[in-house]
Amino acid sequence: MKNLDNTSGRRPKWMMAVAVLAAVFGVLTVFSGGSVLFGPTQAQKAAGAIVPFVVWFNFLAGFAYLVTAFGIWMMRDWALGLSVFIAVATAGVAMVFGYQVSQGIGFEMRTVGALAFRFVVWAAIALALFRAGRPE
Asked: Containing domain of residue 98, as a range?
């Protein structure tokens, strides 16, 4: 992102918005995953038929979202790599989840939507950062 055509050194407004979005997404992800993993029994029951590795992945990924948000805010080059990693890792988890579903494990349909949504968000963030860092 150091190749941004931005000689003033200020963050573009869209990049600030993406950083805030990623940070809010991270906080919500850590909170929701943490409540299922460590929260009261009511929160765990409300989650329904969870798939533990997906919940753990999402919980831990929430911290990566926060680190990436910081990197985007600070316009660090590594934020692009981390956003790509998050998108690819999410796709990988979705594929393993899909395989396990095909083998008959119990799951909540909202997990399918959540994984798809997370992938789309991080792929879009990675694409935006990639395009921002490309020399014209």
From this structure: 13-133
Residues 6+ apart with CB under 8 A from 63: 26, 30
Using a 10 angstrom Cβ sphere, with 0-12 exposed, 13-18 middle and 19 or more buried, the burial of residue 35 is: middle
Q: What's the rounded Cα separation, in Å, for the pair 39 and 90?
A: 24
The number of domains in the chain is 1
- Give the pLDDT confidence of 42-98 residue by residue, as tens digits: 888 888 899 999 999 999 999 999 999 999 999 999 999 999 999 999 999 999 999
Residue 3 lies in a domain: no
Residue 7 located in a structural domain: no
Give the predicted TM-score (pTM) of the model. 0.88
Q: Contact, 50 vs 72, CB < 8 A?
A: no
